[in-house]
Design brief:
Number of strands: 11
Radius of gyration: 32 Å
Helix content: 40-55%
Shape: elongated
Number of helices: 13
Order of helices and strands: EHHEEEHHEEHEHEHHHHHEEEHH
Strand order of the largest sheet: 6-1-8-7
Strand content: 5-15%
Length: about 300
């Protein structure tokens, strides 16, 4: 049996924090340098925002932030409701911005958003918090809906920025999982001298002969730390073994590489690395490839 979610709420945590004083207010401070990293609100104060009004030319009415036309199934009440009807049922009040009988948006603190010096955290699974979130979004002049929006528009009037903490936490988890996989791949080869040398060779890093394990591990670690994306591309490359043979052949002079172009030792041009991979796997070249691999096995392995 499927569970119907409330269409007017979200499983999301939103933080609203003051814009740093260095962004907007530092010119108004006596000691701007020392205050450049402090929020612009004074201790114990808060800013209160109501739903803004349309311009006088457009009628001057309060902006309608709740939809009053589309009905959706609301499991809490087991019936279809518009967004406005849902919040009216929750608050037991009239939310029609055109109603002469209702003063909710002008007077009721539930229809306003108050933000103190430490900011405000909203749980959008809570109807009252969701309503305040919508009030905040309506105040674009003073409250940016996201850090990206703030950076894009750079409105000098903006005093607060909203941040989706649920999204941030999800990104952090994904980043940590990705980093965990990277370290797993790194550690799988860390104690294997030959595997580390293979990675270094294909990546184009020359390692002096007869280096001990510690020195090879240092070079391997440096590659991983400085070029993690390159490292991960190498370990996941389905043609890694072919590229390893190509690198070994170049090292032994069995293939020639000049700039990014590969040639046979007889001077036949093969092309770039992708062309060299295709050339190595082409049955028509197998006699030459077998000879190359045989010499690699004889000569290259002796060097290690």
């Amino acid at each position: 049996m499927s569970t119907i979610k409330n269409p007017y709420l979200e499983d999301k945590i939103v933080d609203i924090r003051p814009v740093q004083s260095g962004q907007k207010w530092n010119k108004l401070l006596v000691n701007a340098a020392s205050k450049s990293k402090d929020p612009h609100l004074f201790k114990g104060t808060e800013k209160v925002y109501s739903v803004p009004r349309l311009s006088y030319e457009k009628g001057g009415t309060i902006i309608q932030i709740l939809d009053s036309s589309e009905r959706r199934m609301v499991p809490d009440f087991n019936k279809e409701m518009t967004e406005q009807e849902y919040f009216e049922a929750i608050l037991s009040t009239d939310l029609n911005v055109y109603s002469a009988k209702s003063s909710f948006w002008q007077e009721d603190r539930r229809g306003k958003i108050s933000i103190g010096e430490d900011g405000l955290t909203l749980n959008l699974a809570d109807p009252l918090h969701m309503l305040k979130y919508k009030v905040g979004l309506a105040n674009k002049k003073y409250i940016a809906g996201s850090p990206e929006e703030y950076k894009m528009h750079k409105r000098p009037t903006v005093e607060f920025v909203m941040t989706d903490k649920t999204k941030e936490r999800r990104k952090l988890v994904e980043k940590n999982l990705e980093r965990g996989e990277q370290y797993t791949q790194f550690l799988k080869r860390f104690s294997d001298k030959d595997k580390m040398l293979d990675i270094l060779l294909v990546s184009g890093i020359k390692v002096a002969k007869m280096q001990d394990l510690g020195q090879i591990q240092a070079s391997y670690t440096e590659l991983f730390e400085k070029n993690t994306s390159v490292f991960m591309n190498l370990v996941s490359d389905p043609f890694f073994e072919t590229k390893l043979d190509i690198s070994k052949a170049v090292h032994l002079g069995l293939l020639v590489k000049k700039y990014d172009i590969y040639k046979t030792d007889s001077g036949q041009e093969i092309g770039k690395i992708s062309d060299a991979v295709t050339w190595m796997n082409n049955p028509e070249n197998q006699a030459t490839v077998i000879r190359i691999k045989s010499q690699i096995e004889q000569q290259f392995e002796q060097e290690r």
